[in-house]
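Sample entry was shown:

___
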Amino acid sequence: MEVNCAGCAGCCLDWRPLSAEPLDHERRGGRVPLDDAYNLVPLSRDEVSGFVDAGYGDALTPRLFEPGERDDRVRLGGHDVAAIDGRPVFFVGLRKPPKPVAPFETDRRWLPACVFLDPETLQCRIHGDDRYPGECADYPGHNLALDQETECERVERVHGGTRLRDRSDPPTGNLALGPQAVGTKVFVHPAPERLDGVVDRLVRGALRAADRAEFVGSAVASSPGSTDVDESRLAAVRERVEDASSWVGRAIEAWEATAGAVGTDATGADTGVDDRLGAPSTPGWEANGDKG
């Protein structure tokens, strides 16, 4: 598999405002998310734990789902939520604050983008790092293996160019489907009564640090292959996440305070916020041979 990622980042940001056709393919499977994030990458339990240990607990956010026709469900704050045995199901991904980006040779716009995406180079700041998510490393391998359209192909169709150069031998080492995903990429929250008001804030895009910490703690405290959650470990991780104050969290606050409306012009916007707050640099596309 070979991809051309230079100037793209289609899989790292929400480029729906730059498309004349509706884009909903990367919202992950048949169940409808309760949030409106696009391309939210599911992290494994070990990856979530690694981000917490690295002090990046404030970079993480949960995703919950509307129940499918045959799903168990629980009613939380006026919303039906997919559940297992009455406990809400969720995964954890990386937050997407608005950033001034110019993908596909377009003018710079305010678009939701991964916390680790450099808005200037459109490269990931942790690519090749121990924290780099397995799903990101494999992408678009899982789509190819499952015979699903890739983000690369959608970008080609809407904005031209060649992004997916070779679709042979897609990597699938981080693909988890079915029951084996429970406790490793798909988690349950053990105490729905603690989520009063949280689901409504998630739907409105107004989660609080304590809300995110509750789910992150539950993910780290989950047992692989099981719906068991260690409440004492959940509490300890929740406290660490609430106390996290990384450059990522501070940058998100800065972006959210200065950004225009999603999709609006960001010409002349300051793109150096992350760098000034201590973000690791990116190597530039020349160092990558213009590949992802």
Remarks:
- The chain has one domain: 2-280.
